[in-house]
Design goal:
Layout: E1 13-16, E2 40-41, E3 66-68, E4 73-75, E5 83-90, E6 97-99, E7 105-108, E8 111-114, E9 117-119, E10 128-135, E11 138-155, E12 159-168, H1 188-192, E13 196-198, E14 216-224, E15 230-241, H2 245-251, H3 266-278, E16 293-298, E17 312-317, E18 320-321, H4 346-351, E19 361-365, H5 389-398, H6 401-404, H7 409-417, H8 435-444, H9 454-462
């Protein structure tokens, strides 16, 4: 959809992008082998990957995704590909060794409970996680991931997400030895705009070398298919790289333990956010995004856009878009009806977004700016334009420099002489003098063509038709 502190502006922006990863040698038809995507920003740019997970590809072909907490073999969607066995955890500083098939290891809100004893995220620093990996062409071989860093990452909703660096030994033979991280890295802007704090209660004498750009989180009882379907499965746990769509959904504020919202469980919200990140309009695992595509998001955490006038791309529900997508983020000119199942235009759906029964997230494309424009009341001088688009339109039609140069005393005087206040879009009782804003609101709420009342003034922004600065 970042923070050491998440820099939250009043008007949030999401930047989404995708690009090809080098030398992955994968089948392009495989939906989880997609490139990086930027995450929503609260004043900066988030980053990561469109793949369901961005763990390193082992020689066997698949990255580590979920695993059986009891030590049973897990075969991923392609039965010819990677199968993983979780063997044991060895805690640092003499904390004990716990074999998966003889101890009850439960994953709880990103940390662990072992045989009924809870362990904080910080207590997992220095722990060793032992696995074996194989496929039809490779015999089972062991590998070990060591937790070299732990932090609590601030996420929307006022909570934190436990995040870990799972480091691989250089001999583990994954496709990109790099820094030996189990995860691909987030982009630098995501890292620089994310707030986090080193975890407390770490073992004595164990250095906490946390690096957000290689971090992952842990989801208990979560299984994610290659098509992006999220289900509850008490037998498994998922290692979700923050650079991947499933982990990134946690950064957006949608880990599986998030509180119920609009009747949706945490798992349903995780699935919905994952599909929105990947532009999986039809909920079929097909991604429709590309590198550098700018987006804006409104959801349970953020109720405004940077630039409300831009077109709506989609309104998201649990299983993809709830409406026909005409203005997709790639500007392909295509219309996504998902086999004819989507007939309602996304503008119509967006109009009822605040009260609709099945709307989860509203996305717009192409923000024209990344910071709110400076503005001022229309009865005082200042920079170009003023706080009301209707007054602006009337005054600037008579004196264009009021919107192109500065709002001078001559502009202020025209507010009165032209009776421009009667055409204000952001106050009720008159009409909206900005033709584009007026048309946008009345198209979605025809009653405003008869009377520009208080509801119409609120709809200027709530419907994404303009800014009442």
């Amino acid at each position: 959809m970042p923070r050491p502190t998440l820099k939250r502006l009043i008007l949030p922006l999401l930047l989404a992008s995708a690009c090809d990863d080098p030398d992955l040698s994968v089948d392009p038809a495989r939906d989880d082998e997609l490139g990086p995507v930027h995450q929503r920003s609260d004043g900066g740019t988030f980053g990561g990957s469109l793949r369901l997970n961005t763990a390193k590809l082992f020689l066997e072909g698949m990255p580590l995704r979920h695993f059986d907490r009891d030590g049973g073999p897990v075969i991923y969607d392609d039965t010819r590909s990677t199968r993983v066995v979780f063997v044991k955890i060895r805690l640092a500083a003499g904390g004990g060794e716990f074999t998966a098939n003889t101890h009850n290891i439960v994953f709880d809100t990103g940390a662990l409970v072992i045989d009924g004893t809870p362990y904080t995220a910080g207590q997992l620093l220095g722990s060793e996680w032992h696995y074996s990996i194989s496929d039809v062409s490779h015999a089972a071989r062991p590998f070990i991931m060591t937790v070299t860093g732990v932090a609590d990452v601030d996420i929307p909703g006022g909570t934190t997400l436990p995040a870990y660096n799972f480091s691989l030994n250089s001999s583990s033979k994954h496709y990109d030895n790099g820094p030996y991280s189990a995860c691909d890295e987030l982009d630098p802007l995501t890292v620089s705009n994310t707030t986090w704090q080193l975890a407390d209660h770490t073992p004595l004498g164990v250095a906490n070398n946390f690096k957000l750009k290689f971090a992952a989180t842990l989801y208990g009882s979560v299984r994610v298919s290659e098509l992006g379907t999220v289900t509850n499965d008490p037998t498994v746990a998922s290692l979700a790289c923050l650079s991947g769509a499933v982990g990134k959904a946690g950064l957006w504020g949608y880990p599986p333990w998030v509180s119920t919202y609009l009747g949706r469980t945490g798992l349903q919200q995780l699935q919905a956010a994952t599909r929105a990140i990947r532009a999986d309009f039809c909920g079929n695992g097909v991604s429709n995004t590309a590198d550098g595509t700018p987006l804006q998001v409104r959801d349970r955490y953020f109720n405004q856009f940077f630039d409300p006038i831009e077109p709506t791309e989609s309104v998201w529900t649990t299983n993809g878009s709830v409406c026909r997508v005409d203005a997709d983020r790639l500007h392909t000119g295509a219309t996504f009806t998902c086999g004819g199942s989507l007939s309602v235009d996304c503008d119509q759906s967006a109009a009822g977004w605040l009260n609709g029964p099945d709307q989860f997230m509203w996305i717009k494309v192409d923000p024209a700016f990344t910071t709110p424009p400076p503005s001022h009341p229309c009865n005082v001088t200042g920079g170009p334009g003023c706080q009301d688009p209707g007054i602006e339109a009337v005054v600037c039609a008579d004196r264009p420099s009021c919107c192109s140069s500065s709002w001078t005393l001559a502009c202020v005087s025209r507010v009165t002489s032209l009776a421009a206040a009667d055409e204000a879009c952001c106050t009720s009782g008159g009409s909206c003098g900005d033709a584009a804003v007026n048309a946008c609101v009345t198209d979605l709420d025809p009653s405003c063509a008869l009377s520009w009342d208080g509801l119409c003034t609120m709809e200027v922004e709530s419907l994404g038709c303009g800014l009442c600065h």
